[in-house]
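Summary of Year 1 activities. Much of the first year was spent building the evaluation harness for sequence design. The harness presents a backbone, in tokenized form, and records the residue chosen at every position. We chose the following record to illustrate the format because it has been used consistently in internal testing since the harness was completed.
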């Protein structure tokens, strides 16, 4: 304990420190530049994926870079293997519909912090995955997946 400090004074000091930290965090959040909206030719694909995943999961963003690598950011802290498999199959189903836009080169499904997740390396093979028996899908997906 600090000499001469009363419990009331310590409480005030802690409260002041908390308020300074909160104001600093708020100011830092406001000074961040706005996220760029995708201006690439992948806009239709991004919108399709976002629309179809948003009915089941909380999607923070879907963006595809100029090289065709799509990143789906979920508002979850973690993504389980079963969630990943369901998201891949949902996405594949919609990418194989008639009049669907071309699939990206790869699709990364990542957590809210964009630190962990799974990368589906074979969106061009979506037709195969959708037609497979459920028992074989897990094994096939393992061959077309790496960790983010």
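For this record, the design step produced the sequence shown next.
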């Amino acid at each position: 304990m600090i000499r001469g400090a009363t419990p009331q004074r310590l409480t005030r000091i802690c409260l002041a420190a908390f308020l300074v930290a909160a104001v600093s965090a708020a100011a830092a959040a406001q000074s961040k530049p706005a996220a760029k909206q995708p201006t690439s030719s992948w806009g239709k694909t991004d919108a399709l994926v976002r629309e179809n995943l948003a009915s089941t999961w909380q999607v923070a963003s879907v963006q595809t870079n100029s090289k065709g690598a799509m990143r789906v950011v979920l508002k979850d802290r973690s993504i389980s293997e079963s969630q990943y498999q369901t998201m891949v199959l949902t996405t594949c189903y919609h990418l194989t519909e008639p009049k669907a836009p071309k699939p990206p080169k790869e699709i990364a499904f990542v957590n809210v912090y964009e630190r962990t997740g799974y990368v589906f390396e074979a969106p061009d093979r979506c037709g195969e995955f959708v037609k497979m028996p459920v028992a074989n899908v897990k094994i096939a997906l393992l061959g077309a997946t790496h960790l983010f």
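Residues 44 and 99 are 11 Å apart (CA to CA). Quantitative recovery figures across the full test set are reported in Table 2.
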